Amino acid sequence: MALLTPEDLEDLLNKLRQSNETIKASTGKGITEICEEVYGTRPASQKVAIVPITAGNGIIGNFSSSLLAITEYFGLEGYITDHPDITGYHQAVSDGADILLMADDHMFIAHNLKNGKIAANHICTGVIYSEIASRFIHAGSKDVMVIGLGRVGYAGAEHLVKKGFNVYAYDPNTEFMEKAIEELGVNAYDSADHKKFSMVFEATPNANTISEGMITDRCLISTPGIPCALPAELAENGDIDLVMEPLVIGAAAMLYSVF
Ligand SMILES: NC(=O)C1=CN([C@@H]2O[C@H](COP(=O)(O)OP(=O)(O)OC[C@H]3O[C@@H](n4cnc5c(N)ncnc54)[C@H](O)[C@@H]3O)[C@@H](O)[C@H]2O)C=CC1
Ligand SMILES: N[C@@H](CCCCNC(=O)[C@H]1CCC=N1)C(=O)O
Ligand SMILES: [Mg+2]
């Protein structure tokens, strides 16, 4: 699993503000409005406990503090437990926390103890970033390009198919491609078709996965992928809207999904 680094999380709220401005400009709505529409929920100053987890690769510097900043951004009462792991979990439940946020190296979850709802980061990230891509106000069709069909990409492709978009997908992993074609009915993207997309959702751990031949001059690229999917020379093109942010948008979707 590609793990976040403390560097990824630097200047997080500024990255969110920039991303949100781009989201508003290219979809007409901001991230909180989109989350409300996708999940049909709103924050209600819930008490959120963040439990650091030492399993596997261990605690990531400023991961918990980043989640704390996210809870405050959404007007929630957030705090980090005094201890990690089971001791922290016990403290959170004893304190009467409504929602727990915690992550090991494989799963990052939000669990609402009051209504029983639980959310996984990779699903919510796929859903929210693909949703953003699909809301491009200048799109001339319902065609969306999906790059990467792993944990995040597959969830996003599934979401787009359910919403009736024409999904063209590419993943070098042929098993994942076949699964998406069979189970979701996606079209296999073929560069030989020279088809260009104004809406792209990318979820890969590789840089520069987007090439000029894939995109229209004016387009929206929505990607949680780290590092950046868009080559620097293409990013200079003023008509490409890029929504890319390492944690907050996905975590916001998790919270809205369990409110
Ligand atoms: N910004 C955020 O909030 C979050 C970001 N991430 C990031 O999203 C990325 C994807 O995460 P996962 O889905 O868990 O990874 P994964 O490893 O499950 O899936 C990645 C997929 O990308 C495919 N891929 C690699 N190079 C490709 C290329 N050039 N073109 C098309 N497909 C390609 C791989 O074959 C694989 O199927 C990672 O970089 C991860 O760090 C994950 C969760 C949240
Ligand atoms: N156990 C650590 C957190 C580990 C998080 C690993 N997961 C990722 O990096 C995923 C989540 C979003 C993007 N990648 C701690 O409690 O500090
Ligand atoms: Mg995010």
UniProtKB/TrEMBL annotation:
It holds the Pfam family NAD_binding_7. Signal peptide: none annotated. It comes from the Archaea. Residues 10-118 form the Pyrrolysine biosynthesis protein PylD N-terminal domain. This is Protein with NAD binding domain, pyrrolysine biosynthesis.
